[in-house]
Structure formats: C-alpha cells, structure tokens
Amino acid sequence: MPIVVQKYGGSSLADAESIKRVARRIAETRKAGNDVVVAVSAMGDSTDELLDLAQDVSPLPPPRELDMLMTAGERISMALVAMAIHDLGMSARSFTGSQAGVITDEAHGKAKIIDVTPGRITEALDKGHVVIVAGFQGVSQTTKEITTLGRGGTDTTAVALAAALRADVCEIYTDVDGVFTADPRIVPKARKIDRISAEEMLELAACGSKVLHLRSVEYARRYDIPIHVRSSFTPKEGTIVTDQPGSEGTEGEAVEAPIIAGVAHDRSEAKITVVGVPDQKGKAAEIFTAVAASEANIDMIVQNVSATDTGLTDISFTLPKTDGQGAMEALQAIQGPVGFSGLQYDDQIGKLSLVGAGMRSNPGVSATFFRALAEAGVNIEMISTSEIRISVVTRSELLDDAVRAVHTAFGLDSEEGEAVVYAGTGR
Amino acid sequence: MPIVVQKYGGSSLADAESIKRVARRIAETRKAGNDVVVAVSAMGDSTDELLDLAQDVSPLPPPRELDMLMTAGERISMALVAMAIHDLGMSARSFTGSQAGVITDEAHGKAKIIDVTPGRITEALDKGHVVIVAGFQGVSQTTKEITTLGRGGTDTTAVALAAALRADVCEIYTDVDGVFTADPRIVPKARKIDRISAEEMLELAACGSKVLHLRSVEYARRYDIPIHVRSSFTPKEGTIVTDQPGSEGTEGEAVEAPIIAGVAHDRSEAKITVVGVPDQKGKAAEIFTAVAASEANIDMIVQNVSATDTGLTDISFTLPKTDGQGAMEALQAIQGPVGFSGLQYDDQIGKLSLVGAGMRSNPGVSATFFRALAEAGVNIEMISTSEIRISVVTRSELLDDAVRAVHTAFGLDSEEGEAVVYAGTGR
C-alpha cells in the first residue's frame, strides 16, 4: 500500500472544528487506499502561550525544561486529531516524537534529527491504524532527553518520517495554496508555482520564503522525497517540490523550464559595519572569529576599499536581528586589540533574492535584474550570488517596490501566460 | 541524606505566582538538608479544560488517546516548577511518569501502579538535582502505552515514589490545613486531626473524605510510608497519617487515643431498589451478577422482609451515581427472567460514616450514634458497619444536620478540649 505522510501546522489545527476538518482530510486519504502517517504541530497559538507561561515563571528558563514544556503542545494536538479520526469510524494511534523513534542530537531548542527508528509506526500501520506523530520533537540519542527541533520543526519531522518509511510523498498542509513566485501580500500578481526543484526551493527558503522550513527541504533533497505543499482549506493541488522528472505526461516535457523560479525577500536581518579596520593581514579573521564565538549566523559580507589611502577599511556583514546584540557585544570586547574605530548597527535593511536554476545557462539574468532595480530607484548596498541566486541588500522601505519591479521584469506577473511558462514543465 | 517526597495539587499550582511559591517551599526543604522528589498535578483547572477540548472533538474519545491528552497537563506544570526552582539558583530535573519509572497495568484512565523503577530519579538525586515528577501518569508494563491513574492519582504517584525511594516522609500539600474531624464547610467546629492511623484514614477516604485519595492511603499503609497532609499556603503542621508509634516524646504516649477519629459524609451515591423480588434462592445472586457485569461498584445492600406474606421482597443497594445508568439498564434487561415487579432509582440520598479505631473496645458507640441521629430527627434508611466504622444512609437534605449532631455527640467540637483529646496521642 502506498504510504502518504502529511503535515498539518498550527493554523490548520486552531480549534476543535479545524481538527475535525483535518481528520476528515486524513480519513479521505486513508480511504483512497493509502497508509497515512501524520505529523502535527501544536494548536494555533498554543506554543506562544506556553512560552509566555515559561517567561512568567522564569526569565531565562533552562533549555531542557523549556523543551519538556513546549512538547506538551503537540501532545495535545496529536491526541485530539487521533480522537477526531476515531470519531469518523477509523482507528488512529498517536505517538510522541520519542515513541515514533525520532532520534536527535542533544541540542535543546534546536536539535537535529540524526536517525528515525519507526518500529512502532510501522507496527501500527500494519494493524491498520492511521498514525499521528507529534511534530517538532524527538529524544536525544545518548541522554534520552526530550528535545525540540526549533520553530518550523514539524516540516522536518514530516520529511524525516517520509524518508524513514520510504513514503511516496510528503504533503505539507498549510494556510496558503502553495509556493508562489513572490509573497502575494507584496506582489498581488504573484503566481502559484506548480512544480519547483528542491535546489531552487532550498534557495528560496534560505532567502526568506516562509512556506517551507529550510531544514525540511534539505532533508527532502538528501533523501529524494517529493514534497507537496498545499492548502488544508481547499482540495486544489499545490506545489510539488522535487528533483525527480515530472510525470504529468509527455506533453509538458517539451515546454522549456522557466529561467526564474521566484523572488524571495527577507526583513529579519540587520547589518553591522565595523568602521576603520586597519588594513592588515588577520584583522578580518579576528573580527569573524569573535562574531562566530557569539554564535551569530553571518549571511553576507562586504569589505569596502577606503577612498583615501588611510590604511583603513570598513567591513560590513548581515546577520539575523536576533543575533545582533550578541555579535555587537562580542565586537565591542575586541575593539581595543583589533584597533578598529567604531561599530554601526543598522536594522532598517531588506534583502531581495532572485532564484532560478536557469541562471546557469542564461548570462543575461543579472543585467535584467540590476536594470530593473535601477529603474525602480532602488539603491544596492550589498550583493551576493550563488550559481542559481542573486541577492541584494537595500533599504527596508524600498524592499516591496524592489520585489515588484524584479517580479515584473522577469515576466513572472500572472497576466503574462502562466499556462505557457509553468504548466507541466517537467522540472 | 533524608529523602522527602512532596505532592502539590492543581490548586497549589494555579498560576505562575503559585508555582513560584511552591518552588520556594521546595527550595527550603532542599536547603534544610533533604533530597527532594516532588509529584505535581496539572495546573488549576487545566485538566477540565483538556477534557472539554476532547469532548468538543469526540463525544466518546478512545481511552488511549484521552490518556495521551490528559498527561500533557502534568508535563506543563512539572516543567514550569523545574524552571521556577532553577530561577532560585537550584538545579531541578523534571521527569514524566514514564521516565520516572512509574509502571502500571494497561487500564487506561484508571491504571494501577504495579512497579516503580526510579533509576533516573536516583541518578538525578545523586547529581544534586531536585526531581520533579509528573503525577497521575505512568507507562503500561507490556504495551509501553501512556496511562493515567484516574482523578486524584497524583497522591498515589507521590506515595509510590516515596515507597520506591524509601523516603522518610511523603508530604501531601493541599489547600486545607490537614484532615479534619468533619468537613469544616458543614461543621464549623470541626478540628484538624494532628495524627491519625492509616486504618482510620482509609475508612474516612472510602466514606467521602476528599483530602486524600483512597488508593494513596492503601499504598502508604502497605509500604508503611508516613503521610503528612498539610497546607501549601501556611508553614503549619498538618495531619500525620501513620500506623507507626508516635515520636513526639513520651509525654503524649500516656494520653489515651480518642475513640472516634472523625465523621465523613458522601453525596455521590444513589440508591436502587428492586421491588417485588420473588423470595427464592438465587434471585439475589442473579440481580447482583447483572449489576456487577455493568461494572458498577456496589456499596451498601439491604434486603427488606415484606410486611405481608406475599412471598416477595425488596432489595436496595447503593452505588456511585456515575454507575447508576449502567446498572439500571442491566437490571431492566433481566426483569423478565428474574420476575421482579419494578425498579426505583433514588439519587437524593446521603451517607454519613463514623470512623474510629476505638469502636473495637467501646461497645457504647453505636448507642450514642443512633441516639444523636434520632434526637436530630434523622431517619435512617440503610446501615452498614465494619470493625471501626458505622455508616448510615439518610435523606440528602438531612445529611448536614446529621453530621453536625454526630460530631457534637462524640465530643469532637473544637471547644471541648482539643489539646486533651488530640495532642500527641501516640496513635
């Protein structure tokens, strides 16, 4: 029997009615002749409510106990989903991450899955049950402590279960119709993408697209699991994320793949500029060693050549705003020994990324990209590129205009022939 | 180092402030030089809220999933208590029932503890941690399923942990000052009992006293664990429940033990009367076999001799109101074959029980008891006795008057020399 893994997020499980709707969807999938394994998040805002409770009790709760607390959220939703399925006349069994065999490392709050031993799941499937698994959580390999995977971790749970069970597909149910060529709240003409490569999806997720959790896409790519991102509110097909060749028939395969998959944006980063760094060997290394020790994740780096021959240079880098304070403190501590003159912190930046596997063989992409930004009056502060991506940093207040201009320049707006560019492209 | 096991109920853990107060109390016990293991219930009304959620999703939720759901409540409170202790500069580790080694049978919703394997607890104590354990829950021995012990089960968890760890005392923290000679809401002159035998406490708990869960007293008696019932809101001593000889010094031992420990009452039962039963061998057996098959717990039974020589008799028995419907249906199904003429269901009854180990050697107790009821104008409908208890069934609306009359008749009212009768009686 084919195995389908489904994931339902908190917004699909907000209350009893939502849970019943999800249960009906699961039951339909089962009735269609599939073994069904479901990973669930905590209901609606319950994760935030638990976090608030923790804050009320302790300003800096120990990570082990925070994980113990947070995992109660999925425990509640999984039991309720199992009950709702039972109420439809089907049998269901819920399992915690630990019971489901989700083995992680020891990093409380941001654990990584290192193995999945789904013995209890397969046993339950063999007995004809639908299986509901608590997302976002696991048990550490050596210390047997309860761990959580960090925000969005239920996507990763679902993909990891799909890989361990050799599932045919991993369906990620969410409150949008799929992955779009840009955020529809900013670009009303953004189109739903029918099919996208895992490579491109990875870049989009890394650059601010919030539909799929980055690690889940990495996991799916490594184990070659097709992901189907779709809405839990409609029966419509969503977006298939896969590097496997398309199977929608031969007709589509003749159509050329689009050059550009989509435009992502991100306002979650800040920029730190280290001003007046002596232009000597090893100074940059000292700076980034200190920043790394503060556990900040650096994204883009630019080193400016000073205009006058002062022997000084400026180094700018971006990082998540949440890492900003720690990095600034780490840099202040080394100002004396490194000998730079000052620090600037700028959290009014925005990042725009253009992603497309077709960039590899289309050298004109960057020219079109920068022309579009120039015509929209958007000044570029930093640039970074990968084989299939160009990212720029701009002022935050210009970011929306920039996204719309680039989206239009690459013919992604929905009037311009969605069917031709995107239907069954075989990618 | 002495080991103290403490239990805190939901009313002591209603919100963040309460949790911090409990944490301070735990920290004091630790600082006084004890290893501390704490069993906690779910916060405030959270158990009822989870039950409501389950009802919204499914009118008859499967017991396995209901247990999975309910156990989230203690998971939340134990993590928060551990955080609050951590915030006081002490280290604490929380453990689920399963992690703590609370092994039960397979009966979801009313599991019995069959073993406690506290390896992780002793390991954590050896490392200097305070240990917080989720009450009310365990893991089944053969199927490894999460189970719950039924309402009030956290008392039993605490006593079972105390027994397994050979603790010096099990402190049950609650929202009253201890065990009273009667419910103070009905008898304002009721006195706190300083010391009571486990045997008497068992009878009081079985007859409606809600301070301690019946099974926890049975467990404590079997393993000879002293229980100290006390308020989490004051530092005052509460009630010591133990069959061990008193240790408050020789002075107290000379004082004679009181004849009567207390008066319990219970409005949770109903009375079923099977009318017109043919007075033949085996008819009662048929009736009670049917009732037992409905899983009703029968308490008292009376068979009336008919006034006229009709060859018919009436059989009355009491049972929990929650078992009433099932028992009535079971009886209706056998009315034809057994040949009785009708059934009466009466849920307006109340039960009063007088408990005291001194009854054994004081034959005048029952005379005083019935005289007090008669003078208070209370009609007795059923009577049952044990070696140390007399119980009667009355009209529910007369029950409070009856309790007060009996309490006064046995000199239990607080004006009449609490110190003489109850201080250090060495029982």
TrEMBL record, chains A, B:
Residues 272-348, 354-427 form the ACT domain. CDD domains: AAK_AKii-LysC-BS, ACT_AKii-LysC-BS-like_1, ACT_AKii-LysC-BS-like_2. It is an enzyme of class 2 (transferase). Substrate binds at T47, E74. GO terms for cellular component: cytosol. This is Aspartokinase. It catalyses: L-aspartate + ATP = 4-phospho-L-aspartate + ADP. It comes from the Bacteria. ATP binds at K7, Y8, G9, G10, T174, D175, R185, K210, V211. Pathway: Amino-acid biosynthesis; L-threonine biosynthesis; L-threonine from L-aspartate: step 1/5; Amino-acid biosynthesis; L-lysine biosynthesis via DAP pathway; (S)-tetrahydrodipicolinate from L-aspartate: step 1/4; Amino-acid biosynthesis; L-methionine biosynthesis via de novo pathway; L-homoserine from L-aspartate: step 1/3. Belongs to the aspartokinase family. It comes from Knoellia flava. GO terms for biological process: diaminopimelate biosynthetic process; homoserine biosynthetic process; lysine biosynthetic process via diaminopimelate; threonine biosynthetic process. GO terms for molecular function: aspartate kinase activity; ATP binding. NCBIfam families: asp_kin_monofn, asp_kinases, PRK06635.1-1, PRK06635.1-2, PRK06635.1-4. Its EC number is 2.7.2.4. Keywords: Amino-acid biosynthesis, ATP-binding, Diaminopimelate biosynthesis, Kinase, Lysine biosynthesis, Nucleotide-binding, Transferase. Catalyzes the phosphorylation of the beta-carboxyl group of aspartic acid with ATP to yield 4-phospho-L-aspartate, which is involved in the branched biosynthetic pathway leading to the biosynthesis of amino acids lysine, threonine, isoleucine and methionine.
